[in-house]
Design goal:
Layout (H helix, E strand, L loop, with lengths): L2 H29 L2 E5 L6 E5 L4 E5 L10 H29 L12 H4 L2 H5 L4 H5 L11
Length: about 140
């Protein structure tokens, strides 16, 4: 193998390792995102993490006492949607800062099948490109 080709391979490997480390750090940052948003009417405040699960729900000004059930439900859903949108925005910004992108909605390409967690955790090429497992109903 020529020296030039070996240098190119070493440079490519070094770039890959640098990118991999940046993606591992980005994954950790994304996992730690927690966002609190309030409904426009100020009646509801919800905190949501990257998995979309609420971790906090507050009624900061007791305005809910004067609201109908339907109005309160609308405020809860509005605050939840606002929190989720902010989580998505922050996660997207983190991925873009390291040169990563989210899979396209169209799907079909190799990058859309790529399992980033398996890649970052040292999976084989077959594991990294394997289609996601489809679990059925796990209830007994």
């Amino acid at each position: 193998m020529s020296s030039s080709l070996e240098e190119q391979q070493q440079q490519a490997l070094a770039q890959f390792m640098k990118k991999r480390e940046a993606l591992i750090e980005a994954r950790q940052q994304i996992k730690s995102i927690s966002v609190t948003a309030r409904s426009r009417d100020g009646a509801v405040e919800i905190t949501i993490g990257t998995d979309g699960t609420p971790s906090g729900l507050r009624f900061p000004n007791n305005k809910f006492k004067e609201m109908t059930g339907q109005a309160l439900a609308a405020s809860v859903l509005e605050a939840m949607a606002a929190s989720r949108a902010q989580v998505t925005s922050r996660a997207t910004a983190i991925m873009e800062s390291v040169g990563g992108t989210a899979p396209s909605a169209a799907g079909g390409g190799v990058l859309d099948r790529l399992n980033l967690d398996r890649l970052l955790d040292g999976g084989t090429l077959e594991e990294v490109l394997a289609p996601p497992a489809t679990g059925g109903d796990k209830r007994g």
